[in-house]
Amino acid sequence: MPAGTEAGRFGDKMPRMTDQPIDHPLESLDPIFSPRNVAVIGASRNRSSLGFALLHNLVMSEFTGAIFPVNPKARVIHSLKAYPAVGDIPDPVDLAVVMVPQPAVQGVVEGCIDAGVKGLVVITAGFAETGEAGAAAERKLQETVRQAGVRMIGPNCMGVINTDPGVSLDATFSPTSAERGSIGFLSQSGALGVAILNAASDLGIGLTQFASMGNKADVSGNDLVEYWENDPSTRVICMYLESFGNPRHFTGIAKRVSRKKPILIVKSGRTEEGARAASSHTGAIAGADVPVSAFLEQCGVIRANTIDELFDIATALDRCPLPYDRRIAIVTNAGGPAIMATDACVDLGLEIAELSPATRQRLEAFLPPEASVNNPVDMIASATAEDYARALGIVQADDNVDMVMVINVTPLLTNPIDVLDQVAASIEIQEKPVVAVMMATEDFYDEVKVRPDLPPVYRFPESAARALAKLYRYSAWRRKPEEETAPTFEVDDTRVSEILDGAGDGYLPDDKAFEVLELYGIPVAPWRIAAGSEGVAPAAAEIGYPVVLKAMAPEVVHKSDVGAVKVDLRNEEELVGAVDEIRSSLAAAGHSSEQFLVQTMARGGHEVIFGISIDPRFGPLLMFGLGGRYVEVFRDVRFGVTPLTASEALEMIRGIRGFALLTGVRGEAPADLEVLQDVLLRLAQLAVRHPQIQELDINPFLAAAGRGESCALDARIRVGPSTLASPAES
Question: What's the domain range around 358?
Fold first, then answer.
């Protein structure tokens, strides 16, 4: 076994290397995935070594080119003539798989470049995942291959597979290979890559190509997404990631590719950078993983929580058309599973379709009287395979149905394969997704996994419902009109910079926070700054009663927690009394204030929250949701990342659970959604142009019916040194 390929060889945790995008033609990866000849440097006759396992896999996969083992101590390996060095091979070599001890890798790679090799897969570990010395060796390796224009996967990886019969390449040391299919799969983890190949084999899921990325010193996930973008054999792109190399570069690629074919990701890990302390509502709610989900959602990327879920969704994406809408029909021979399916579909945001009278009449014409022709359609246990085909055809033809789930609990007299064959025959003429839940014995699933002509098959309704829900959401994203750029607004950024740069680290005074918002065209309830009890009355008289009184105490983040806010003050007597009460409350909490903010008492509408926090990798994170004192309790919020388009801002607003409140209930006037959308877009520009803003909360913002009535009632802005990684560091 090569040194450095046992302990920690899969590099699940490693320091971040640079992943600055390099312009390479897409065909630069052809020597890796479609080589004419392959050299295995570090091939071994020791059957327990990785050097033997990888060479064995190349031979057993019936690679269509020549295989050249390289080992200075062996004449023949695996019945193949071996060579002392890659330069001794008489034929041209496209791909070299490097499996030598770590100290020898640099020299071997340089020898490969001298010999004209254009593709490298470096299996050897002991690089950036081991510490600074290894990282330095990796940087040197990266510089070498990039200067030579050679592409490299790894180091610290498991290898690559291409199931195309014209190539038949398995350059991995995995005990399980891959069958031909329609899914391109990349895994950042080699250890999990083995598990992925095992799971795909067990489920009968085929791949076009597979790559274990390792440390991603050269070839990145972005490169492979672009490589598979125009590959007609790859219908679905699947990725297991532990970190994003350059998320801001990924944005443009993913948005473009997702318009053509689905990208499905399992993202693990909770980064130390993301788990930062935050005093704002936005930062506290966001946590470590929220930026990832918001980022992927805006890119049209589908996220799965587990590998099992990923394969469930990928199978549906591969074998089903996309639905137009969310209305689902269920056809079953058992009531209990249908109830489970109904609950799962509703929980996941699907809608149980209302079958038309004509559909119900056609079902009644051949089903027994005991059957139910409503949705779910329960044909009872006596249903035959032919009954399934007939019922499915009728239900699919209903204009109220966008997708169908077929459920079969195997009775004694019906072969479930016959049912599935009839289902498959029935859906050939339709353009609606159909999935099957087959509650059968294990031998049935062994037979199904070698039948790619069948619809997606699931053991339980919940898995099928989850897959269909993901199909619908991806379909809805694909139907959105494309927006190339985020809108921009003419504002006084010079003055905003003066305020932010002159404040020092920490929270801005209330008046400065309001001024920033007003400079950016965000409406604020009228306000005045007053000194002591002598100044509050004239300020209130100027803006008009009733008013709200707030202490100016920058060290107090949430004023209501320490009694520093008094509302609905209707005259001077109440106002002056409120000053004394606030001073007493502040003193009890160990604070003081000689200045006060007097603000118009705005009424009507709904309290919502806007926010900004900064993720070091993904950049500004925007938040919208229902606001007020209990925002961190209810957490009815949605997040987005920049750049933010108009439609994405509107989706954030519509995506909260309580959106119905903003549309008007029980006679209430609806909130002006265009105002809320405008505020989100202006905040996105503010966050991008002024990276010294670390956190911002507008809470509450009064979402009213009239454009002139909606306004910010309170705002907090914290400034400090920018924590964003530069593109070169991403």
Answer: 321-479
